# Entry
Amino acid sequence: MKKQVEKWLTKQVPNWKEKQFLLAVSGGRDSVALAAVFSELGVQFSIAHCNYQLRGEDSNNDEQFVKALAKKCEVICFVEHFETQEILDTRGGNLQETARDLRYNWFNELVKNENLDFIAVGTQLNDSAETLLMNLMRGAGLAGLRGILPVRENIVRPFIETSRTEIDAYINSNDLKFREDKSNASNKYERNRWRNEIIPQLKEQYPHFDSALKSSIAHLQIANELVQKETLKISKHLLVQQDNKWLINRGFLANLNPKSYYLYEGLKPFGFNATTINDLCDSDLKQSGKQYFSSTHVITVDRDYLIVEALKTRKRAIQNTREILFSDESITQPTRLKFALLNVPIQIKKKPHLAYLDADKLTFPLTLRKWMPGDRFRPFGMLGMKKLSDFLIDIKMPLPNKEQQMVLLSGNNIIWVVGQRIDDRFAVTDSTKKIYFVEQKQAT
# Structure
């Protein structure tokens, strides 16, 4: 392990022996193992630990463990306490994304204030494999299939080519103590299901799973780098900035092949996803004035150009966003909802304020937010996808109601247009084992 990390540092971080690293340590096996390897190699490092104050005494015990580890390694230990739940209650949003933003903002402050060079994290090969496989199932492009990058800006991942099996062997041979987050055993989160159920089954079928994924990730990263270089050359000519707008010459675009790929890569920084780009390309750009939305920008089809502009008011979609945990029984804001897990069989009442969903098809936490232009779903009973804006027009929803319409999402998929229609892909079927029931209550 020591030689493996030393080889990686030599390759990825020139003059690493002269650099100062900030090592993120949660207390878990990966970060503890990396701290031990850094100590063996004589790496100059400090330890940073985040206490999110979400798990009561367990969070405090993690902090004390990391402080003791830093003392054993004879390095400085920085600790920050975050009022995570209060931040979520105030701002809304996703727990995992919020925690990531909190820690990396703090890490970057430490790097600047303490005159450090790099942030080192214990991300390892299996984490990268999980990311690749999840993205594959979501229909990601080449960039999503490259796994987690070994170096990104000032963040380095010395274990990114090291498997969980190798780390466990190192921990056992050195009798290292570590803290186990109990939530890692719960399959409520998508990544945990991959880690605890799906990947172990794949390893049974393919004994060389780790080495094969390592090789595939390396090939995909090289391929993505080459494609990105070529795409960047074209993008410089594809997008032309004019004042506060970006213009895409339709004549120039017509000569690109594949048009959808160049458009997707060029417009990705503006938040446009592959579905929207495919819709744009499939339309043959015949309807002048037609618009396509991302969460931050709008594309307007003009006679000679596609015009990309920032949306003036997008705060309404961000405000009142709420994360729904599997354990939640009810919420009162931004709308009143009641949740329950039901056994089958059950008599389903066909009322718009009730949603009966296949629990096994859901990924928690769910997200509740206001609808946005560009949202799509498959209305119950239909075979194809439909723009939510068109659906709201079809049901003749009054404009004041439309402005307040909420949607419930699993991952990036709408599962219920609240109080209106569920998504057919998440409907209860004969094979459903558990039903996730949601009821919208009238305001009192």
Q: What stands out?
A: The chain has three domains: 2-219, 243-310, 317-440. The CA atoms of residues 201 and 358 lie 24 Å apart. Residues 2-219 form a domain with the Rossmann fold fold (CATH 3.40.50.620).
